[in-house]
């Protein structure tokens, strides 16, 4: 699990490094644009996604050079830390990975080897949970669910 990132702290440190002498306020809109490839790595391509209401999106990515899938839950509007999660599960091999906690912009990455297998994956932001079961395989039809708790 990763630590929550503080946008204001990063901005303040950048200002100090640049020799800024005036104070400033950092807003969520000033946060860098987080992408699935930025979270999972440059070799990962987005192969599927599911919205988490209007709060963000869970992305499923795949790296064809190593056969691994990666999931990341990314908020639409980074800001104050919120409860977030992301997970991936390969039913055929019983392998899974997850990440959860209070984060300012994203949960993840979570990696599993998935070449040639169906994967189940999902995540949450605040009280909205989404899941996609048996996806990215030809044999089964995927099932998507959204739950508000």
Number of helices: 2
By oligomeric state, this entry counts as single chain
Order of helices and strands: HHEEEEEEEEE
Low-confidence stretches: 1-31
- How many strand elements? 9
Output the strand order for the largest sheet.
5-4-7-8-9
Mean model confidence by pLDDT:
81
Shape: globular
The helix content, as a percent range, equals 10-25%
How far from one another are the termini? 23 Å
Strand content: over 45%
Structural class by secondary-structure content: mainly beta
Q: What's the story with the biggest beta sheet?
A: 5 strands, antiparallel
Rg over C-alpha atoms, rounded to the nearest angstrom: 17 Å
Attribute tags:
149 residues, four-stranded antiparallel β-sheet, mainly beta, single chain
Characterization of the model:
The chain is 11% helix and 48% strand. By secondary structure, the chain is mostly beta strands. The strands form 2 sheets. The chain has a 5-stranded antiparallel sheet with strand order 5-4-7-8-9, with no helix packed on it. The longest helix is centred in the N-terminal third of the chain and has 11 residues, at 7-17. The two termini are 23 Å apart.
